Structure of Isomerase:
Amino acid sequence: MSSPPTFHPNALCESKAIGSGTRIWAFAHILRGAVIGSDNNICDHVFIENDVVIGDRVTVKCGVQLWDGIRVEDDVFIGPNATFTNDLFPRSRVPRKAMPPTLIRRGASIGANATILPGVTVGVGAMVGAGTVITADVPANAVVVGNPARIIGYAGSEVISSQSELPAEADWQIFTTQINTDSRGRLSAWSLASTLPFVPQRLYVIDGAPDGWARGGGAYVRSHQFLLATHGTLTVAMDNGRQRDMICLSSPDRGLYVPPGIWTLQFGHSADAALLVLASELYDPSERIADYDEFLRASRPG
């Protein structure tokens, strides 16, 4: 049986839309229009404006202000004194135009004293380090730190350096490509058909990442891919919905096979990074899954 929300005697809650089991602690102030779900913990000195929606089982630690336009999904953690903003061009006593919404997706964690600029989405399961400044969307499960934020990892995964270290439940493979060099350092030919588990139909090269951020963040329904760093280094996060790994690519004699239905995210590019991708299918945007929750539904049928 669900219990009613509880309010500290020194809390000021003007909203009637507070879910069962939610606790509002001392000196928190919640305006009339705010909507707060069930089993949340709203700590001391939290201010929540009118146009704010919070899901279930959310923790908002002390000293946080949630302004109009902010949406917080289920199971989110917001650390002490995390700072949210909702105006890209703030001026005193100047009426604001429509404010870009800020979305904190399911299961994300925001570290203490992090700053979240307006209009961004922090993805499902992402982890934002203490003091981080978020100026752009954070991919699902990305671990970010710094000012501006940079991706340093993928939540719940470890770095794998060889095929023998891959767990049995992993669907991906690390190949030794056996590409040799001649005396001048040029690459010799490599027989793809004898090595890859698919016949390549498309080839493209990705040079670096915009602003040192990330590429990928999606899965393909039909396409097999083979990834190889021809220059520099980068890290590829792999996720099949059950197992997660990170694989660093830093040499053209070592590549990564990605079967269909695997979520990938590329990050940590060096300045000279170049990634060669061989794909089994011609490009079809309709087969790409870009939403992590949709990916999970597809990877766990029934």
Observations:
- The first strand starts at residue 6 and ends at 7.
